[in-house]
Amino acid sequence: MAALRPDSTSTLTLTDHDLVAGLISLRDCLRWATSEFHNHGLFYGHGTASAWDEAVALTLGALHLPWDIDPSVLDARLLPLERQRVVTLVRQRVETRRPLPYLLGESFFAGYPFDVDERVLIPRSPIAELIEDGFAAWFPEHPPERVLDLCAGSGCIGIATALHLPTCRVDLTDISAEALAVAKANIRRHDVGDRVRAVVSDVFDGIAGQRYDVIVTNPPYVDARDLAAMPAEFHHEPALALEAGHDGLAIVRRILRQARDHLQDDGMLIVEVGNSDQQLQETFPDVPFLWLEFERGGHGVFALSALELEAHAAAFA
């Protein structure tokens, strides 16, 4: 039989058993996972930006190792069960296109871990920077006392706010009872139940009469065309938390109409609209949206004061 040439199109298929036997160290797993992700053309947008970053997040998460691990551990031998866990997760990531945080059941936001599954969006908002800074741009002397996390999903924005601002009281609201079940689990995980509550609410309908210093929200803002064109990974997330009509502004319009009634006179509304930012500006050309900039990247987040909302109420109506 003739020997195979180096450029032969024949391929070697490795079974999971072969991989578990051959991937001895953490470094081996990282190299293999990175190659697999490159070969299968995955999309990265749920906490990582490249095949290498995704491989690092997967292997460290699979082995319950911290991000700041000593590099010498890379050459440590892994137990067969640990190697099997990594192989299984890489196979699932490639074959199902499920985002990695769903596979791990956890995502980090503003420095804290949160439970996540397909009932909620995966945390990734640049609003994390505002939380870490204590909303100091608007409250330089005293932090806000009451904050509303509207369309809260996993509750990551509101709970992270409570963790960074230990005197702040926070309400989490969402139309989805399933999403709020995850949020309640995160409230328990971070032991903030004395200052954070979860309320089922269709935008503001469930919190009549409540007023806040800050309303912060990452609402649904994806228009129909963008939703259809999204990579497969995004279609594992709840459509209810993404889609917002033909122009992406169906929920944002409601927020702009009603937010003033739920803000203190010196309160602030902070809203993420992502790629719908241009559509929003064109729809309300006279409204002085303050578009925020972020050191770690991200765009499409605006701020409006209570008085600005009041001054442009006619436009929102």
Detailed description of the structure:
With 317 residues, the chain is an alpha/beta fold. It folds into 2 domains: 16-104, no CATH class; 110-316, Rossmann fold (3-Layer(aba) Sandwich), CATH 3.40.50. It is built from 13 helices and 9 strands. The protein has helices spanning 16-22, 26-40, 51-62, 80-96, 100-104, 128-132, 156-164, 177-189, 224-229, 250-258, 277-283, 306-311, 313-316, and strands at residues 106-109, 112-115, 146-150, 169-174, 196-200, 212-217, 263-272, 290-291, 301-305. Helix 2 packs across helix 3, helix 2 packs parallel to helix 4 and helix 3 crosses helix 4 (80-96). Mean pLDDT is 92; it is low at 1-12.
What keyword list fits this structure?
single chain, 317 residues, alpha/beta, Rossmann fold, 2 domains, seven-stranded mixed β-sheet, 36% helix, 15% strand
Strand content: 5-15%
CATH architecture of the largest domain: 3-Layer(aba) Sandwich
Largest sheet: 7 strands, mixed
Classify the fold: give the CATH topology of the largest domain: Rossmann fold
How do the strands line up in the largest sheet?
5-4-3-6-7-9-8
- How many structurally independent domains? 2
Shape: elongated
Question: Which SSEs are present, and which pair or pack?
Answer:
Layout: H1 16-22, H2 26-40, H3 51-62, H4 80-96, H5 100-104, E1 106-109, E2 112-115, H6 128-132, E3 146-150, H7 156-164, E4 169-174, H8 177-189, E5 196-200, E6 212-217, H9 224-229, H10 250-258, E7 263-272, H11 277-283, E8 290-291, E9 301-305, H12 306-311, H13 313-316
Parallel strand pairs: 3-4, 3-6, 4-5, 6-7
Antiparallel strand pairs: 1-2, 7-9, 8-9
Helix pairs in contact: 1-4, 2-3, 2-4, 3-4
